[in-house]
Specification:
The chain has 343 residues and is an all-alpha fold. It has one domain: ABC transporter involved in vitamin B12 uptake, BtuC (Orthogonal Bundle). The protein has helices at 3-14, 17-35, 42-67, 75-91, 96-119, 125-144, 154-161, 171-189, 191-201, 203-208, 213-239, 250-260, 272-291, 296-328, 336-342. Helix 4 (75-91) crosses helix 11, helix 12 (250-260) packs parallel to helix 14 (296-328) and helix 13 (272-291) runs antiparallel to helix 14 (296-328). It is globular, with a radius of gyration of 23 Å. The protein starts with a helix and ends with a helix. Mean pLDDT is 89; it is low at 336-343.
Length: 343
């Protein structure tokens, strides 16, 4: 195979945003190893992964919401509400096998409220979910107040911070991996994914093509609410504590992970693989800075910088890809009729 043929084969791979994320992830791992001798320890990677899972689980449905042209900023508060509600009903004597489905149902109702306000009342999702961000957090404090519930069954706590037997793989990672596979298949291999991309690119054209846009978006908000509630259950198990302020500040990392993963903030573009990679990029960065005794405020500055890059970066890559595509297009020969028409 000739050199130009090899270049032609690998050029599309090199211009993919996911390839750049792999490079950035490798760079951050190298920086982390340079900052701390404990960074490359297997136990540290297990703890790093465990710390990411609630944000990672919330990022999956949020990616679909943004691809469809909307946004959900209320996920961290729904996580806190689900944690507070689970603690309240468990302290009242309700067993976990009944409390967890109840919490997930509340997550679905919260997502349904977001969806109806966006699709039926036709309010901007940014405004709606900013409002419910405050609403759900306030409800969490109403339900549980300032107290914490910490007397949980050992099996529940083990699910939160335990590992798969014989490995250093946290149980929440198994949940996230299964969800990522399902979401990846749904988005990239089914008609649902095609409808999502079509809706994000041109909502009116998708509606005329037969896509039930309102139903689709409402379903996405419900899914986002359910998985935010699931993340609240997992965080409660991992911390062995139900509190109304659980998950506070998570939304910055969740939104950054989605946008850094290559999901277009205006909708219509994105991959689950990119979101998964960006989750670990953010996690590795935060872990490296923590081991280097960098304050959380400084870490927030770094993540904020990534958020800016996540908006601008994919656009730059798309322009480079378009320029390379134009460079590969051979010049069209001018026909005799075109020559005569130009004279």
């Amino acid at each position: 195979m000739t050199a130009p043929a090899v270049v032609a084969r690998i050029r599309p791979l090199l211009t993919r945003w996911e390839t750049l994320l792999v490079v950035v992830l490798a760079l951050f791992i190298w920086v982390g190893a340079a900052l701390s001798p404990y960074f490359l320890d297997a136990g540290n990677f297990s703890d790093l992964t465990d710390d990411l899972m609630e944000k990672a689980i919330m990022a999956l449905p949020l990616a679909l919401v943004i691809i469809a042209g909307e946004i959900d900023l209320s996920v961290e508060s729904m996580l806190g509400l689900s944690s507070a509600l689970l603690g309240f009903v468990f302290a009242a004597g309700l067993p976990l096998w009944a409390g967890i489905p109840l919490v997930l149902a509340v997550g679905a109702l919260g997502g349904l409220l977001n969806g109806l306000l966006v699709t039926v009342a036709r309010l901007p999702s940014l405004v709606v979910t900013l409002g419910t961000l405050a609403l759900y957090r306030g409800l969490a404090y109403v339900v549980l107040g300032p107290r914490a519930v910490s007397s949980w069954p050992a099996a529940f706590n083990n699910f939160g911070f335990g590992d798969v037997p014989g490995t250093l793989v946290p149980w929440p990672f198994v949940v996230f991996a299964a969800l990522a596979i399902v979401f990846g298949f749904l988005l990239h291999r089914t008609w649902v994914g095609r409808q999502l991309f079509a809706t994000g690119k041109n909502q009116e054209a998708a509606r005329f093509a037969g896509v039930r846009v309102a139903r689709l978006k409402t379903t996405l908000f419900v899914l986002s609410g359910v998985l935010a509630a699931l993340a609240g259950v997992i965080l409660t198990a991992r911390l062995a504590s139900a509190r109304a302020d659980n998950g506070q500040g998570f939304v910055l990392d969740v939104v950054t992970a989605v946008l850094l993963g290559g999901v277009n903030i205006f909708g219509g573009e994105g991959t689950i693989a990119g979101v998964v990679l960006s989750v670990f990029v953010i996690g590795v960065l935060r872990n490296a800075l923590t081991l280097a005794d960098i304050t959380p405020d400084t870490q927030a500055i770094a993540v904020g910088g990534l958020l800016i890059v996540s908006v601008a970066g994919p656009n730059v890559v798309r322009r480079i890809r378009a320029a390379w595509a134009r460079g590969r297009t051979p010049p069209q020969p001018v026909t005799r009729g075109q020559e005569e028409g130009s004279t």
